[in-house]
């Protein structure tokens, strides 16, 4: 949404991230997708050359693309592909934990609001 | 949605369906209303009017520069690069805490990369301020408050390009 606002006011934008479906749905002009776990959109931790390559590729996208473009980057996760299925996994082993976490989440949010935390 | 897709490194795996996963996850936690993600058919487009090597570049992040402000009270803002914290607060954001970590700031803040690209002459300069936009449940806070504030700051700083790096 911020990219859309900037782009509409004469600032060229590019997003670098790992949440393809979310960004795709939002409707942004340029997106470099690194298909790795959420948390390190620019590349693996401490992989400075990889991070630099991501930023350079995103900038090239601004120069090269003439229509809304999604570019899939070259980064491959070092530790296999198990993270895809594990993230936000729901099964019989955690169903009750999640239900209780939801109750705690709502209680904590109510408490924050009662303390006056708001914008 | 009309996009052109470019494959740089091949695409061997189906990208994770985060919208579906998130919906199921919160449903399992007993939340009754599913989150509505921003959904736009039109896509704004600004064509760069000068070469990259002359552009002033900034970045926008969702990692939290001042973690002492309570989550529900955080607002979008612009901060001097010179005052950038060594570590941003990320623990309250949604990311894959099992698969990875955020101890390397440069894996989600493109400061050093941009400084190197400026030094090499690939871009003209790194803008003196960067920008924070909180990941908000309320889309109207982003649309009507945070994004316009960042827009105004970018215009004041004569920014040509913004790289947005959501965690």
What would the keywords be for this entry?
heterodimer; A: 119 residues; alpha/beta; three-stranded parallel sheet; 5 helices; 3 strands; extended; B: 167 residues; five-stranded mixed sheet; 23% helix
Q: Could you describe the 3D structure shown?
A:
The complex is a heterodimer of chains A (119) and B (167). With 119 residues, chain A is of the alpha/beta class. Chain A has helices at residues 2-7, 20-26, 48-64, 82-86, 95-114; strands at residues 12-17, 30-33, 69-72. In chain A, strand 2 (30-33), helix 3 (48-64) and strand 3 (69-72) form a beta-alpha-beta unit. The longest helix of chain A has 20 residues, at 95-114. In chain B, strands 2, 3, 4, 5 and 6 form a 5-stranded mixed beta sheet that branches. Chain B contains 3 helices and 6 strands. Chain B is of the alpha/beta class and 167 residues long. Chain B has one domain. In chain B, 23% of the residues lie in helices and 15% in strands. In chain B, 31% of the residues are buried.
- What is the helix tally of chain B? 3
- How large is the radius of gyration of chain B? 18 Å
Largest interface: chains, residues each? A-B, 90 and 96 residues
Secondary-structure element sequence of chain A? HEHEHEHH
Kindly state the mean pLDDT of chain A as a whole number?
A: 94
Topology (SSEs and partners):
The complex is a heterodimer of chains A (119) and B (167).
Chain A: H1 2-7, E1 12-17, H2 20-26, E2 30-33, H3 48-64, E3 69-72, H4 82-86, H5 95-114
Parallel strand pairs in A: 1-2, 2-3
Chain B: E1 4-7, H1 18-28, E2 56-61, E3 77-80, H2 111-119, E4 125-126, E5 129-132, H3 139-156, E6 161-165
Parallel strand pairs in B: 2-4, 2-5, 2-6
Antiparallel strand pairs in B: 3-5
């Amino acid at each position: 949404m911020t990219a859309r606002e900037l782009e509409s006011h004469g600032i060229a934008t590019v997003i670098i991230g790992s949440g393809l479906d979310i960004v795709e749905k939002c409707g942004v002009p340029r997106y470099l997708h690194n298909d790795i776990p959420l948390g390190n959109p620019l590349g693996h931790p401490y992989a400075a050359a990889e991070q630099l390559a991501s930023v350079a590729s995103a900038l090239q996208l601004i120069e090269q693309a003439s229509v809304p473009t999604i570019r899939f980057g070259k980064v491959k996760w070092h530790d296999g592909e198990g993270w895809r299925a594990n993230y936000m996994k729901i099964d019989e082993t955690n169903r009750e934990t999640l239900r209780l976490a939801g109750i705690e989440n709502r209680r904590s949010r109510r408490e924050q609001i009662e303390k006056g935390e708001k914008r | 949605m009309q996009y052109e897709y470019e494959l740089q490194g091949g695409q061997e795996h189906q990208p994770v369906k985060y919208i579906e996963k998130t919906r199921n996850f919160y449903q399992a936690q007993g939340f009754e209303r599913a989150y509505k993600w921003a959904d736009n058919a039109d896509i704004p487009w600004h064509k760069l009017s000068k070469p990259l090597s002359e552009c002033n570049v900034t970045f926008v992040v969702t990692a939290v520069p001042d973690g002492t402000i309570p989550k529900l009270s955080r607002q979008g803002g612009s901060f001097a690069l010179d005052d950038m914290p060594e570590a941003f607060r990320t623990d309250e954001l949604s990311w894959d805490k099992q698969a990875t970590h955020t101890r390397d700031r440069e894996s989600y803040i493109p400061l050093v990369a941009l400084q190197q690209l400026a030094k090499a002459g690939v871009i003209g300069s790194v803008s003196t301020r960067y920008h924070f936009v909180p990941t908000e449940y309320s889309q109207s806070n982003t649309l009507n408050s945070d994004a316009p504030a960042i827009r105004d700051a970018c215009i004041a700083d004569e920014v040509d390009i913004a790289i947005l790096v959501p965690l």
